[in-house]
From TrEMBL, chains A, B:
<dbReference type="InterPro" id="IPR011879">
    <property type="entry name" value="Sig_transdc_resp-reg_PhoB"/>
</dbReference>
<comment type="function">
    <text>This protein is a positive regulator for the phosphate regulon. Transcription of this operon is positively regulated by PhoB and PhoR when phosphate is limited.</text>
</comment>
<dbReference type="GO" id="GO:0006817">
    <property type="term" value="P:phosphate ion transport"/>
</dbReference>
<dbReference type="GO" id="GO:0032993">
    <property type="term" value="C:protein-DNA complex"/>
</dbReference>
<dbReference type="GO" id="GO:0006355">
    <property type="term" value="P:regulation of DNA-templated transcription"/>
</dbReference>
<dbReference type="GO" id="GO:0005829">
    <property type="term" value="C:cytosol"/>
</dbReference>
<feature type="domain" description="OmpR/PhoB-type">
    <location>
        <begin position="131"/>
        <end position="228"/>
    </location>
</feature>
<feature type="DNA-binding region" description="OmpR/PhoB-type">
    <location>
        <begin position="131"/>
        <end position="228"/>
    </location>
</feature>
<dbReference type="GO" id="GO:0000976">
    <property type="term" value="F:transcription cis-regulatory region binding"/>
</dbReference>
<feature type="domain" description="Response regulatory">
    <location>
        <begin position="6"/>
        <end position="122"/>
    </location>
</feature>
<dbReference type="GO" id="GO:0000156">
    <property type="term" value="F:phosphorelay response regulator activity"/>
</dbReference>
<dbReference type="InterPro" id="IPR011006">
    <property type="entry name" value="CheY-like_superfamily"/>
</dbReference>
<keyword id="KW-0010">Activator</keyword>
<dbReference type="InterPro" id="IPR001867">
    <property type="entry name" value="OmpR/PhoB-type_DNA-bd"/>
</dbReference>
<keyword id="KW-0805">Transcription regulation</keyword>
<keyword id="KW-0597">Phosphoprotein</keyword>
<dbReference type="InterPro" id="IPR036388">
    <property type="entry name" value="WH-like_DNA-bd_sf"/>
</dbReference>
Length: 231, 231
DNA sequence: CTTTTATATGACATAATTGTTACACGCTAT
DNA sequence: ATAGCGTGTAACAATTATGTCATATAAAAG
């Protein structure tokens, strides 16, 4: 899971937080915890988690109050929220949804259910935009069908090579260091050797074949560049 | 009711969306929701719903603006739209109809009325051949008779496999993640494991047999794609 | 023409993803 | 109830992808 999501758990009862955290971590998420709305708010503004699990009933500021506040702030408005509530508080569901909550789980719930709904919400929260195909020489990459063709002949690439090529084709004529490529293509927070980039470059070139491997150019002492100009 | 229709509900007020969604789901429709015109537009282009319920008044882009935009785009022009509007906005009715809206309901309305008019619109609109048979290679799916044939030999599919195939055949050459497939084929509000998709893919492939199983292609690291192009 | 440094390449072990089968549960109709 | 079907999950197998070496080549530097 290279792009593991940050989940903030807000609940005043420590055992519950623990339980949730364990479940989520087993599912590959990274968790932070807060035991009240105040510190939660601070943490959210500061760390911008990908998702918030928010208990309904808490001392001082209630969960819903926090939700409202987050929705008003532009920098936090888009973060999906799942409300946790005790059985029998169903009437509050409408209020919750009014406050912009994305989903709603009543305690007690199974870890499995929690993870499932969390996934569903995350899925929905990221509407995938429509991307246009890019082409150079006779090489075309279509993000929609997720296909690459060299003069109409299909080329098959591993996921990483695909992302690498996609990045290159949308950032042509510019040299990137291995470090930059790791950031952009692999995603910032993975630790892999820079040499790994070389290997994937090699794999990409191989897949492109004689016809198009010239597009991937090495910039000695710096990194690599994708360009149609034979430098 | 295995040929359930996808309805997108666009309204900025969550409780209203909820209410509508519940009503429609009880009537056998599958619902997605959007709370603003922007994301609605993205979802429409992406998922091509069978029907759109569109609130008149919304922040940023108004419903009518979205309607106009959809009508201009060839890929979305045929999707029927029902406008929701508050009482006393009757004057806008003309504008709405000018913009290509198919019907018009004033709030408040009963769920029963909504469903009735939705059915009526769907019946007479029958958007660009959603009810027409589709065929690829020698594989044909006829939504009306609810039949699938491979070179005129009948294939029998379970309900889910049928919907999956139908979705694929009407959305060819696009890679879909398991999550997206769950949203589109299973319906937005179910919480099932993503791996379940794999199993149904398998069942579908098996049913298609050697003759046509190549149409269902796996896009490693992403999901699946239905295409006649071998790759 | 060496030496030094940087990149290319092929091979591997391991990790991640997908395919496949089996099974249990809930429905429906008998 | 019972039998049959459709579904979702779990478990295991098969396949593919990834990162890291070790080594070969190639380009600059001396």
């Amino acid at each position: 899971m290279s792009t593991s999501k940050q989940v903030l758990i807000v609940d005043d009862e420590a055992p519950i937080r623990e339980m949730i955290a364990v479940a989520l971590e087993m599912a590959g998420y990274q968790c932070s915890e807060a035991d009240n709305a105040q510190t939660a708010h601070a943490m959210i503004v500061d760390r911008q988690p990908d998702m918030i699990l928010l208990d309904w009933m808490m001392p001082n500021m209630s969960g819903i109050e926090l939700a409202r506040r987050l929705r008003k702030d532009e920098t936090t408005a888009a973060i999906p929220i799942i409300m946790l509530t005790a059985k029998g508080e169903e009437e509050n569901k409408v209020k919750g949804l009014e406050a912009g909550v994305d989903d709603y789980i009543t305690k007690p719930f199974s870890p499995r259910e929690l993870v499932a709904r969390l996934k569903a919400v995350l899925r929905r929260a990221t509407p995938k935009g429509v991307e246009d195909p890019v082409a150079v020489d006779g090489l075309m990459l279509d993000p929609v069908s997720h296909r690459v063709t060299s003069n109409d002949k299909p080329i098959d690439l591993g996921p990483t090579e695909f992302r690498l090529l996609q990045f290159f084709m949308t950032h042509q004529d510019r040299a990137y260091s291995r470090g930059q490529l790791l950031d952009m293509v692999w995603g910032g927070n993975v630790y892999v050797e820079e040499r790994t980039v070389d290997v994937h470059i090699r794999r990409l070139r191989k897949a492109l074949g004689k016809q198009h491997d010239y597009l991937v150019q090495t910039v000695r002492g710096t990194g690599y560049r994708f360009s149609a100009q034979i430098a």
